Amino acid sequence: MTRRVRWAPKLPVAMIVRLYESDARLLRDEELVDDVGWRLVARCGDVLLVSDSEVVCPDCGSTFAVPWIGEPDDRVSTCPGCGWSITAGAYHATFHHQDLYGVGAREAFAEYASRFPRLTSYTEKMLAIDRLVHAVHKSGNLAARNLFEGRARDVVAALDALAAARPADPGRGARSTEAG
Fold it and tell me: Three-state SS across 103-152?
């Protein structure tokens, strides 16, 4: 049986708030930083796939191009690795209302998704997460909707509160030069 395309879920904004609050209290929660970090890697990766009109085959894991919006719904794309296929209409339905089209902060998503998997220390991971959150925050609610679950204005309000309250350099307890 052929599997369906699945996308990484958005991250609850409460998890980011909890991570920043923990870090501000100088409590290095390794488990939480890894959970948040890897969830963001998965979500950023999926935003990049959709934005680039690509899909990962759910059967063999090959990545290949699929028709973009505006193509006929019955146009078929076939996986070069195993022959699994999907129509343009079915592909577009997989991400409809999922906020996966992310050109607003594309560079930040790509940099984060490629960099985070190589990081080993709490401080490096926290700084990478902070850079991503900062990029999403400064780009406005469109990019925030790509990553965080919740109403856009509530997500932006939570990010505003973090930017106003956080130490400037997460993971180090020092003041950051980046303003949220």
Answer: CCCHHHHHHHHHHHHHCCCHHHHHHHHHHHHHHHHHHCHHHHHHHEECCH
Contact (Cβ atoms closer than 8 angstroms) between residue 78 and residue 85? yes
Run means of pLDDT, 10 residues per run, the chain, 180 residues: 84 94 93 98 96 94 90 93 93 90 87 97 96 84 84 84 66 42
Asked whether the whole model's pTM tops 0.70, one would answer yes
Instruction: Classify residue 83 by burial, with Cβ atoms within 10 Å: 0-12, 13-18, 19+.
Output: exposed
Q: Any idea what DSSP says for residue 168?
A: S
Pick the closest to residue 149 from 30, 52, 43 (CA basis): 43
Do 136 and 147 contact (CB within 8 A), yes or no? yes
Residue of 162, 163, 46 lying closest to 106 (CA atoms): 46
- Residue among 122, 140, 111 at smallest CA distance from 44: 111
Measured distance CA(130)–CA(144) in Å, rounded: 13
